Amino acid sequence: MDVFEKLRILSDAAKYDAACTSSGVDKKASRGGMGSAAACGICHSFAGDGRCISLLKVLMTNVCVYDCAYCVNRVSHDTLRTAFTPRELADLTMQFYRRNYIEGLFLSSGVMGSADATCERMIETLRILREEYRFAGYIHAKAIPGANQALVARLGLLADRLSVNIEMPSGASLAKLAPDKTKKAILAPMGYMQQRIAESSHDLVRYRHAPRFAPAGQSTQMIIGASPETDYHILKLTAGLYARYDLKRVFFSAYVPVTESPLLPSLETPPPLWREHRLYQADWLLRFYGFTVDEILDEQHPGFHPYMDPKCHWALQHKDFFPLEVNRASFEELLRVPGIGVKSAWRIIKARRACALTWDSLGKIGVVVKRAQYFLLCRGRQRSGIVWERSAVLAALMSARERALYEAQEGEVRQMSLFAGATVPLLTSKERRELQCIQLPI
What we know:
Helix content is 40%, strand content 10%. With 442 residues, it is an alpha/beta fold.
């Protein structure tokens, strides 16, 4: 099998690994080296100068000794198997980089033979890139659960970011769907990597040129929709992972049915993409907006609102917190207002040092006035013409797609004037199938 046929098979097998993240590290090649990494670089996105920044996302091999029910590469699944040699994959990466196809590498792997043997093949690939080609670009590597700590240590000195997939949101689901894996085998390398990253940061202060262990930190990924855990349970786990392991990012991957199994949703079940979207929105609130899990969801309300993002839903449930005077509210209070993000909140704090803000000036500094107008006062006054009327508020707080879902689900129950004048895109067939799975709140 030639190398390009291997690439076709192993890049397709890697498509369920989430890799769209900022690189989180600034690095330039030394004299005679090649490549660089910028902290703001995002794979499969665009830089400010219009360049497409992307990663070669590929598996070392799709051969695997594990039999995880949700995985297309599991040992019992009938699929074409292959593997790169370290030299083949390193050469391929450099050929793509020189042609400006990619700016880095995302490397994962099935477990071929043993965790140690697989990790050694990945290390050799990265060694060739770093030492022989002197490649200084971004590399994200998946650590193999169960591999020897010495191998993980070597991998972390070659890669910019490491990750270990936590796979399932609970130990019970992991035991049922991935009987060959254990919670301890997954969490142990996460704890070790967290310790080494912290030590490396301290060493850098003392020894300027000391090599850093995974300078862009570590992340993880969990599958959503293959097991019965609630959104509240998943969000609790996410917050715990951030606090305990100092993760840079928790990724959520909507389960795509690939094989028939009594332990999993049927093949006709659409991936819970809308649920994945809501989890990412809530994750953002946890990391940047100062929310706690119990402010977003709780045991009595363990699922997200189907038509409204978590921040807007919180605001409607806490009307007593509003309206806020924009010229006196603290930074933390401003972050609670729909239509105000982290950047626009800082701009408000900076701008009001010079003069009292008006409604016109709010729009100029990036506030989405259409949303924020229901929750703010400017110089002690509401915006002229604003009346707290449920249909108008809902129309302002929902996105175009959320309004489309709302209209399709509510049908004749909705008020005809609710979204007057709004342009609502048609639903795709995938979104219509997904809509059928939404459970409305009672």
